[in-house]
Amino acid sequence: MRRAALPEHRFGRALTLALLVLLAALLISSVVGAAGIDPLSVSVTLINELPGVHLPHALDPLDRTLLLEIRLPRLILAGLVGGVLAVAGAGYQGVFRNPLVDSGLLGASAGAGLGATLVIVGTGSSDGAVVPVAAFVGALLGVGFAYLAGAGRRDVSTLLLAGIAVSMFLSAVQTFVLQRSTQNLQAVYSWLLGSVSGATWHRVLIMLPYAVVGCLGVFLHGRHLDLLAVGDEEATSLGMPAARVRLLVIAASALAAASAVAVSGLIGFVGVVIPHVARRLAGSSYRRVLPLSLVLGAAFLMLVDTVARTIVSPGELPIGVVTALIGAPAFVWVLRALRGSAT
Amino acid sequence: MTRLTARGLGVRFDGVDVVTGVDLTVESPDWLMIVGPNGAGKSSLVRALAGLLPVSGRAAVDDVELAGLRPRPRARLIGYVPQAPVLPEAMPVADYVMLGRTAHLGYFSGPRPVDREVVGSVLDTLELTDFTARELGSLSGGERQRVTLARALAQEPTVLLLDEPTSALDLGHQQQVLELVDGLRHRHDLVVVMTVHDLTAAGQYADRVLLLDRGAVVADGPAAQVLTAERIASVYHADVRVEVDDSGRPVVIPARPGT
Ligand SMILES: Nc1ncnc2c1ncn2[C@@H]1O[C@H](COP(=O)(O)OP(=O)(O)OP(=O)(O)O)[C@@H](O)[C@H]1O
Ligand SMILES: [Mg+2]
């Protein structure tokens, strides 16, 4: 009889691999860029940040400031956004028992888009602290509307369809607003296409609490998401209040996704693809998919952002464009490479 | 001792009554077999007894009304095997059986050693140890059925509701599962309610047989009294001979009409 490797062992290997990839992504992304600084000095400078450590070969003060105040916060923000989007996507996929659902689908993306558009059109600028707040609130409101419109029915597909309807409605309102104020088109579109270029430590800190609470909320429900896979009636017969779990996970995923959307605009793809790769690596249990998604999502978006800011240097590509441009072929490659190895 | 009771239990879907006025009492370690033609309402009755459907009338385990019970305490009381369980293709057998432990775990806690022990011994009893790492999608029909039964046993309930748990089993495995349930109910003092189409099996294992037709109880009592050739002919529109074996239990033999 053929015996597959035990999922726990596969998970251990996959998580180690993912953490190594994350470390490599961190190093590559902090080295690559306009100002050529070498990996050794970067490592030394980072290690010197630890209290009481003074190794030689650190960067000179100017490069050090570039690394610590510009490159690093951006890198961390990209990683945070990537990890959070992947976790939120996985959470929704568990709730809807559908591996193709994205974190934006339930109204979060459209709500954030409308919120940001209203502020950009209203103030005539996409800078400032108000746009993220509006996007954050818009995302949560979008999901809230979708939930109110579609919950209460026995089947989850109603909720999903309600999310799509709410999204279409909000997008239509957004288009209407934009039509009446075409001078802001450029600013709105560059926000929509996603970017972490304005990253500061301040932004990282503002996003962090929501991201942590949201992700933690999803993480704590890994076992419950596995249980939802047998359907509401059986899950209930096994002792889990299915509707309540669904609401909690949706709320947590929405919070996490909203925090990411607020600081980075709309970045699709990550939420669908990364959990899928995680499944291929370590099996379908959400107890394993969620942590792997966090790490892989972070690594992926760090690398993508590095490409986004270097490939047409000194200009920049929107991160959403790069995600699709390199992400899509990479995804196909991963699907083919892992086919069969993860049965 | 555990007692499962139903009084005037009714189930209605979209304005149509599919189960009406069912009264029953089963005391552990008794085994009640529910039989009846397709669409008679057997599965609906079992789901109602599991507390999974809105019902009219009452259903209770001892003095606890099922209607007012939350899922977790209910799942510690009642183990339920659906007729057509949802089996997530990619889930390994061990993880699936572990789902049966849900009601014994704290909301945020994972499986404890004792839970792994229970799952291990259930897999062992059902001869599923070779399958622990296999994905559900790769199992045969009979293996699936045994895995779902294993999940219900892992719940360690006092009431077992089984909806056609042997429909896909070969003769040997059917006997094995029925003997297993028979042993368990005596050892752990369980109430067992099971639906089955094999009338001979119903007669051989049941303390009581309940015959359901179009949602209503036609007969309820010892197998030999319920399963008569005339009654089977009128409810199932089937020609059968019924013989009684040495232990006084009925054996139902289908016959070609007109022979
Ligand atoms: N959700 C539902 N909505 C409407 N009608 C339903 C629903 N579920 C069951 N029914 C109907 O209720 C009747 C009883 O169904 P049930 O599944 O209880 O029968 P059964 O005795 O288990 O049949 P079988 O032997 O084929 O399993 C059938 O006529 C069925 O079509
Ligand atoms: Mg049935």
TrEMBL record, chain B:
PROSITE patterns: ABC_TRANSPORTER_1, ABC_TRANSPORTER_2. SUPFAM superfamilies: P-loop containing nucleoside triphosphate hydrolases. Keywords: ATP-binding, Nucleotide-binding, Translocase, Transport. This is ABC transporter ATP-binding protein. The keyword Cytoplasm does not apply. The keyword Nucleus does not apply. One of its GO terms (molecular function) is ATP hydrolysis activity. Residues 4-239 form the ABC transporter domain.
